[in-house]
Design brief:
The complex is a heterodimer of chains A (421) and B (470). Chain A has 421 residues and is an alpha/beta fold. In chain A, 46% of the residues lie in helices and 8% in strands. Chain A starts with a helix and ends with a helix. The structure holds flavin-adenine dinucleotide and iron/sulfur cluster (SF4) (2 copies).
């Protein structure tokens, strides 16, 4: 653990739920000053070429105002600081801008490849942290999410005692009481969204069928990613510390996540606080497993499938091939690509805390994405992220296209193809 | 009505759907900056941004602006490198973002595109159909067709090969500063003889009207071949370029120069062994690959007569792509260490090219601020153009940065005056107005001012560019 993080942890206040709107740090002034310095430094490297607006779901696909572009967000928070506007009557404008970002990472890749390699997303993140400290952010609906994570350990305000309900009558090892090689980290969305219960169950049955020695945490809690992207670093650190403790006690060799967001958090954020167990997204794990121990596909699936790259697999971690390998392995599947795929893939609009708010996009990103899928002639959109799944499924329903196209997670498709009952 | 951000927005919302009008202070600030390394000034922050959907809405905005005497600044992608996209006083930012329709009229031989289409998006569609877009600026990804046509810049393309974009613009839809919509040019492939209004707006520096639609001739794509030469002695290299012209070789489509130090940066980025000297790499075109290759060989002959370290045909498209993409990102890659790139545009005449090359090597000598910084040089040498540049430290305050940029424009002006040339890429006024007056004289300048006054009696459209305030 770095000194800074130790300080952060030590500075955590054990607060009551009523005070969740209060900042969580003791040494707030220093933290605020550091955030401001980070933002000013990075933003002063921006040459305003606006390249990063290309492919940004905000400026490219839906809006067009240049403040609603990656460098626009960065410049806005910079001038907010420089011109001392953070607490004036325009503060909500700034907040609304910063919370538009889906954290898809497109701009970071573009600025690195074509311009000055500014870690734009870290600056947007620092901006959100700053607004949170000043009690300007996050958006009202997101405040509730923070409270829910704090109190219930999940962003949906669900009772933690019901977290395992999705399993129904399936028997699974519980860690750390039981012992296993692999920890399946299910995540909050798959655990609490009843429309995704079957995804969790199929995942479990799939792993069983593949003879994986695995278990789930008996007391799983949020990975902290929503708190982090919404700007509450202290809450994130609290969740991270709880999880790392559980991971280390579980005795497993590998952690496999259902959600790319949990995956990202475990590989990018947790190592600095002592997490040293191998982490894989389930698509990586299964692709490796199936290559080692070839699978018998019992049910051919003669369908035209297009794969939607979740940003936190693709643009954040360059995991483009494994999900496609899995789909190609299934007999009968014809895989077709959308106009925007892999590193050019269009975000579904659910990341960055936008899952919890109603963002007025015109057209809505997920609907544009479904339109792209329809254009390929596919009748099935495969994805590998519970949030993308939800966003795309809702879009299909809102567009009344259920007859034409379905949305499924890769795990569900594999489950069907293996003929598991 | 007192002019304020609120009152302007209210009025604009009566013309354009509300969601395409923004009075957000942050939107206004972002429109008050440009690629120059210094900060926005509070007194320049615009009142509002508006994104009209068509020429009619543009016309209404301009009529309103005339009535209220509020300046209108047209904004494509805001990447102008001569200061033209930074408003110098509060006004309305008219973004062409929504003027983004593209229509292929292949049976007429044209593509028609909205002024807000990005160069890259048009190029992609044009190329998909087997044509070629005669525009290749470094900013291709974002630069708008309206911005490029207003500048009449083809970026890296060598003018002697296929000319300027204006040679392919066969017609425009333009909204005059006073709010009338006009059409120029022809639907035929025969260009109008005699008075032709298109010329006022192509390369018009955004002074005389708002271009809303551009009709461009579809040029069939040609086969390409590539060459590279390396010289220890850059003056001999410049003589090679002279020879190419004097010996009547076919002009290349693209011909880039990198001094040794800059080449090292570019080659290293792309994982190539840095060359032992300065490099030129170029593209020749032909109807067949053989014809293009033959042209490359002919051009190489001219260079070989000047004693290069090497002069070769590039057979591998991968190598060419690496060289080209390295070239494209050198300026910005240099900035990845956290400084701000700032380069001039020095254009030689053919006769003086070796002398100009020698002077460009000393471009920053004696300049109080610019002279303190390390010089990197590249350019479109086939077009006799050099971009000597430096990396400005971020720690410098706004005034120093402004002063350094000013020194750069002054030295650029001295050289372009000496060689009796002018910039071929970034427009003529704004930061170059002083140069323009010296180069073409007060009489010409007064004439342009009068012309501007005829088109724009209230000086509503892009004020400041002609005056050179920025
Ligand atoms: C990284 C980088 C690389 C670049 N490389 C090159 C290069 O290689 N070659 C080159 O020539 N330039 C280059 N540029 C400069 C710039 O991209 C060009 O000048 C381009 O023409 C500007 O287009 P824009 O859409 O950004 O115009 P803006 O900057 O938005 O506008 C430029 C001027 O044109 C006016 N204007 C814009 N649209 C219209 C319209 N529809 N009607 C009337 N007036 C209009 C504006 O009012 C303004 O005065 C580069 C810039 C950057 C940042
Ligand atoms: S690509 Fe990078 S340098 Fe260019 S505007 Fe975006 S953040 Fe700034
Ligand atoms: S992360 Fe994605 S949504 Fe956010 S600013 Fe960058 S490109 Fe836009």
């Amino acid at each position: 653990m770095t000194k800074e993080q130790t300080d952060l942890k030590e500075n955590l206040l054990m607060e009551t739920s009523e005070s969740m709107d209060e900042p969580l740090y003791m040494d707030q002034d220093r933290y605020i000053a550091e955030l401001k310095a980070t933002i000013l430094d990075a933003a002063s490297r921006c040459r305003n070429c606006n390249y990063c607006s290309i492919g940004c779901p905000l400026s490219d696909s839906t809006r067009g105002f240049i403040s609603q572009s990656p460098s626009g967000l960065m410049q806005s928070v910079k001038y907010g600081i420089r011109w001392d506007m953070l607490e004036n009557e325009d503060r909500e404008d700034l907040r609304n801008l910063l919370y538009l970002c889906t954290t898809c990472n497109n701009c970071v890749l573009t600025c690195k490849a074509k311009a000055t390699a500014i870690p734009i997303l870290e600056i947007i993140q620092a901006g959100r942290n700053l607004l949170r400290e000043l009690m300007i952010g996050p958006l009202p609906e997101q405040r509730k999410v923070l409270k829910d994570i704090y109190i219930n350990g999940n962003p949906y305000g669900e009772n933690p005692a019901t977290r395992m309900d999705w399993l129904g009558d399936l028997a699974v090892k519980r860690l750390p009481q039981d012992q296993a090689e692999v920890l399946l980290f299910v995540g909050c969305t798959t655990s609490y969204d009843s429309k995704l219960f079957s995804l969790g169950r199929k995942m479990v049955q799939l792993l069983d069928a593949l003879k994986v020695d695995f278990g789930v945490l008996s007391e799983e809690t949020c990975c902290g990613h929503p708190a982090r992207v919404i700007g509450d670093e202290a809450l994130f650190q609290e969740k991270a510390a709880q999880n790392v403790d559980k991971f280390l006690k579980s005795g497993v060799k590998t952690i496999v996540t259902v959600s790319p967001h949990c995956y990202n958090t475990f590989v990018k954020e947790y190592p600095s606080i002592g997490q040293n167990i191998k982490v894989q997204h389930y698509t990586q794990f299964l692709a490796e497993r199936i290559q080692k121990y070839p699978v018998k596909w019992r049910i051919p699936l003669p369908r035209m499938v297009t794969y939607h790259d979740p940003c936190y697999l693709g643009k954040h971690h360059r995991i483009y091939e494994e999900p496609r390998e899995l789909l190609r392995a299934v007999e009968g599947i014809e895989l077709v690509e959308m106009a925007q795929s892999r590193e050019n893939s269009l975000c579904c609009g659910g990341g960055g805390g936008r899952m919890y708010t109603e963002v007025e996009d015109n057209p809505r990103l997920a609907e544009t994405r479904v339109g792209q899928a329809i254009e390929t002639g596919a009748n099935l959109i495969a994805t590998a992220c519970p949030w993308c799944h939800t966003m795309l499924r809702n879009a299909v329903e809102d567009m009344n296209l259920q007859e034409k196209i379905e949305v499924k997670d890769i795990a569900e498709i594999l489950f069907e193809a293996m003929g598991i009952h | 009505m007192a002019v304020s951000s609120e009152s302007i927005c209210e009025a604009l919302e009566r013309i354009v759907s509300r969601k395409y009008v923004s009075g957000s202070i942050y939107e206004r600030i972002k429109n008050a900056i440009d690629p120059f390394p210094y900060e926005a000034l509070k007194e320049q922050v615009p009142y509002a941004t508006v994104m009209p959907a068509n020429a009619e809405e543009v016309a209404e905005i301009l009529k309103f602006a005339n009535e209220k005497k509020v300046p209108v600044f047209v904004k494509g992608s805001g990447t102008h490198l001569g200061g033209a996209s930074r408003p110098h006083e509060p006004g309305i930012i008219l973004s062409t973002h929504r003027l983004n329709k593209m229509e292929f009229l292949e049976d007429y031989g044209f593509v028609e595109c909205g002024a807000g289409c990005s160069c890259a998006s048009v190029a992609q569609e044009v190329e998909r159909r087997g044509y070629f877009l005669p525009m290749a600026p470094g900013s291709r990804l974002v630069a708008s067709m309206g911005g490029l046509v207003s500048n009449n810049t083809s970026g890296h393309i060598i003018d002697t090969s296929i000319g300027k974009p204006g040679d392919y613009v066969y017609g425009l839809e333009v909204v005059l500063p006073t709010g009338e919509i006009i059409e120029t040019g022809t639907m035929g492939l025969r260009r109008p003889a005699g008075t032709e209004m298109t010329k006022f707006f192509v390369g018009g520096d955004g002074l005389l009207g708002v271009i809303t639609k551009v009709r461009m001739r579809l040029l069939p794509a040609m086969k390409r071949a590539y060459g590279v030469v390396v010289f220890e002695d850059v003056v001999a290299m410049a003589r090679g370029v002279q020879r190419m012209y004097v010996e009547k070789r076919p002009a290349p489509l693209l011909m880039e120069f990198l001094d040794r130090k800059t080449a090292k940066v570019g080659y290293t980025i792309k994982g190539l062994e840095p060359p032992p000297g300065a490099v030129i790499f170029f593209v020749a075109t032909g109807n067949t690959h053989q014809e293009a290759t033959g042209k490359v060989e002919m051009i190489l002959q001219s260079f070989k007569a000047e004693g290069p370290q090497s002069a070769d045909l590039i057979e591998s498209i991968e190598l060419w792509n690496k060289l080209w993409s390295a070239r494209e990102v050198i300026g910005t890659f240099l900035m990845q260490e956290g400084k701000q790139w700032s380069a001039a545009e020095v254009v030689s005449n053919l006769k003086s090219l070796p002398e100009c090359m020698a002077e460009v090597l000393r471009f920053n000598e004696g300049l109080p601020l610019f002279g303190q910084l390390e010089l990197f040089i590249f350019g479109h040498i086939g077009a006799l153009t050099f971009h000597p540049g430096v990396l400005i430290p971020r720690e410098w305050d706004n005034d120093r940065k402004r002063q350094a940029v000013k020194e750069r424009f002054q030295r650029e002006a001295e050289l372009n005056l000496k060689y009796r040339t002018c910039g071929g890429e970034w427009g003529q006024f704004s930061k170059r107005t002083n140069f323009w007056v010296q180069r073409y004289g007060q009489v010409s300048y007064e004439l342009v001012k009068k012309m501007k006054a005829v088109f724009d009696p209230n000086n509503i459209l892009n004020p400041g560019i002609l005056e050179g305030y920025r």
